[in-house]
Amino acid sequence: MGGAFLCIALRGHYLLRIPAWGAVALVAGFLLIGARAWMQEAPVLGFRYYGAIEGRVVEVDRSAGDHLRLTLDRVVLERTAPDRTPEKVRVSLHGEQSFFTPQAGARVILTGHLMPPMPPSQPGGFDFRRMAWFQQLGALGYTQSPVLLLAPPEPATQLVNRLRERLSAAVSSHIDGQAGAFASGSVTGDRSGITQGTVVALRDSNLSHLLAISGMNLAFLVSFVFAVLRFGLALVPVVALRVNTKKIAAVVAVCVAGFYLALSGGNIATERAFIMSAIMLGAVLADRRALSMRTAALSGIILLALQPEALINAGFQMSMAATVGLIWGFGAVDRLAFRQRLPRWSVPVYVALLSSVIGGLATGPIAAAQFNRFADFGLLANLLTVPAMGLLIMPGAVVATLLAPFGLPQPGMWMMEAGARWILAVAHWVAGWEGAVTGIPAPPPWVLPALVLGMAWIIVWPQRVRLLGVLPMAVALAGWSIAERPAALVAADGILVGIMGDDGRSLSYPSGGSFVAGSWLRSDGDLAAQVVAAARDGFREVDGIRSGDLDGLVLAHLKGKAAPDHLARACELADVVVIAARLAEPHPEGCRVIDQQELSRTGAMALSVGEGGLVIRPTLATRRVWDGADQ
Amino acid sequence: MKDKVSAPLIALADVRGRLFPLLPVLMGIGIGWWFSLTDEPGRCHIWRRP
Question: What is the spatial distance between Cα A197 and Cα A203, in angstroms, rounded to a whole number?
Fold first, then answer.
């Protein structure tokens, strides 16, 4: 079918060519992601594992629990055949590990637990297993024992990762504390030194993008290098009169951007920014207009062709939305000729203000849908800190790198330190304000695509036709505002149950299943912690059995070693009993029992009361290659 | 009838220069279509107290 469309697009009647190209793009997207899923095939651990784990360190970062975390490849597991061993595993390092300094490329061994990537925590929820499949990440786990170094990095392997570590160590040795960790993280992408407190402050002030090596960081770097070279070479008459200094600056800037992409570890936003910078600087070389909607579209096509799974990545979505929004927004505002009427001194302020407003408007709905939170004072925090990134940190990094061979990295380090301290001070200050964050309930799955299509329509079409784009956006926002969250949720392993009440979701236990609890509460738009949600009215304990009301039915939850002993009594008290155990004998009559046997087939469940009974909505309909259990 | 079919096509041809940014959007729809097939929700069932 794709071939037929391609034939029409290339050779067909000229009136049919445009719709045919549209159909080719659509079919190409479908085929590319299918091919990618097939190409990324790698074993997924199908069982819980405890034992020796050996592998080569390819990434070092920090987990949400603030533990150092290693991603290993070339994995060897005890008693596990190579064809069942995952390509990559990720292990959090608990306990005392201070004697161990992780190095990319080093071969390590540890004793730890591994488990398959987690299934969705609720129907329609984020499927981590699918994301892990595209990264060939087949198991996750932790260790509480010391990590042992088996072999140092081999010469000439993992060069970029090791260079990143050395640069990061150099920055941290000159700049103390979290400012050093932030400066090295925002420049090199090494986030292993950044504590959870800093991550939360940056997130709650909408400044995480400064650390994510977003397109903005790369744009600042490329702009600085381009400007310094262009104006610097213009001061040398011998060069300026003989060669085109603009083109020399463009060539050097694209090389610097490529190096920075490799150094930063190449996340989606940085890749998008690199492709766009390369196209823009290529346009400078070809004497074409550098920044246009076509440049952004071309970078989108290249990135989706290379990594089609990026479409569902929040970094890709926000990066594209910000770029397209800035190009379109500045174009629209400039047509109104505001800038020409402004005094010259105020133009940088106007540009900073407008870009923060447009960037915030373009990325706000995506961030709210993906992260279920909105940083209320994010605009102010960005206005206060983005200039520090552009004027201090990125130029400081370039100055420090250029002067380091002469033993003079200090001036650049001072610039980076001043910028990093200012940004962190603003982040903590703004994040500490009352009402700094508002929880946003997760939208139905069709809402975000409808919003994006509406925005795309408005941007692409001319004049009045573009107003039609408001329609899907309005429907999407209305659908989002009236979306209802499930009345009750059951975790995929039966370890936690949550019932929605007037003051939010009440959880059956204050501990255990913290990842699932966090996911449910976030999706509810609820900022409370698990302990707080478990203390809400909803569940009560009678005879050691926790139960709550679900619209007229009684829902009981049993877990722990004694759970099967309480089942008969729970069945007398409740209509529905969720038990975190696999039951061998037949279930007692008179109540609906949901055990781990059933949950292993259905995944997490959403429960509600309707149509004269209990409506049970499972998560899993069909087994997928990334489920792992069948391997 | 022929005009009704060809008119939108002619309109599209007139603005073809503007339509390039729609290509990644359509690619995205194709990719999203594949993802939506893998996100097939489980079928609800109803339990009634005996």
Answer: 10
A66-100 tens-digit pLDDT: 888 999 999 999 989 998 999 999 999 998 877 78
Total H helices, total E strands in chain B: 2, 1
CA dist A3 and A47 (Å) reads 42
B5: closest CA of chain A, how far (Å): 10
Considering only CA atoms, which of A161, A140, A145, A144 is closest in space to residue A90?
A: A140
**Cα separation, A554 vs A3, whole angstroms:** 57
Contact B21 A456 (CB under 8 A): yes
Query: What is the spatial distance between Cα A277 and Cα A291, in angstroms, rounded to a whole number?
Result: 9
Q: Which option is the CATH number for A49-155: 1.10.530, 3.40.50, 2.40.50, 3.40.720?
A: 2.40.50
Return the number of CB contacts < 8 Å for A and B. Answer: 148
CB contact under 8 A, A445 and B43: no
CB A201 within 8 A of CB A431: yes
Cβ distance of A614 and B13 shorter than 8 Å:
no
pLDDT at residue B19, as a whole number: 78
More confident call, A416 vs A262: A416
- Within 8 A of B24 by CB-CB distance, chain A residues are 25, 297, 300-301, 304
Distance CA(A41)–CA(A115), nearest Å, equals 18
User: Chain A residues with CB inside 8 Å of B42's CB?
Assistant: 123, 602-603, 617-621
The whole-angstrom distance between residue A463's C-alpha and the CA centroid of its chain comes to: 36
C-beta atoms of A297 and B13 within 8 A: no
* Concatenated DSSP letters of A79-110: T--GGGS-SEEEEEE-S--TT----TT-EEEE
- In this predicted structure, the answer to whether residue A576 has a pLDDT above a threshold of 90 is yes
Residues of chain A with CATH 2.40.50: 49-155
Q: What does the alpha-carbon distance between residue A64 and residue A626 come to, in Å, rounded to a whole number?
A: 23
Q: What are phi and psi of A501, to 5 degrees?
A: -125, -170
Report pLDDT for A630: 47
Domain boundaries in chain B? Answer: 2-32
Tokens, residue A41: 């095939």
Lowest mean pLDDT among A99-108, A469-478, B25-34: A99-108
A144 against A465, higher pLDDT: A144
Nearest-Cα distance to chain A for B31, in Å, is 5
Per-residue pLDDT band at A385 (split at 50, 70, 90): very high
